[in-house]
Amino acid sequence: MATNSTPWPLALALGLAMAELGVFLGFAAIAAPGVVFFTVSLAGAIDEAGYGRSRPFLLAVVAAAVALLGVVAAAVALPIRGYSMVIGAVAVLPLAVLDHRR
After folding, report:
1. CA R_g for the chain
2. Statement: residue 19 has pLDDT above 90
């Protein structure tokens, strides 16, 4: 029986559910917070697993990937959903800077 427990599986599931509700179903009010929650949770899980250099770097990389997907979505045919993804990703970048200075 493992004695260590981590909050990342639950946080990833909740963040993904919020992001899906917001982005894919068009609920703009929860799209950006859902993207932020999912992005931060994904970077934290990757960092805890030991696959990244540093958490601020992972936050910036994951945020850049989500922003790129948002730009593509906005350019293709889903402007509101793409903009929501970009706004959520841009909101993560100050968190990466703050985490780097910590």
Report:
1. 14
2. no
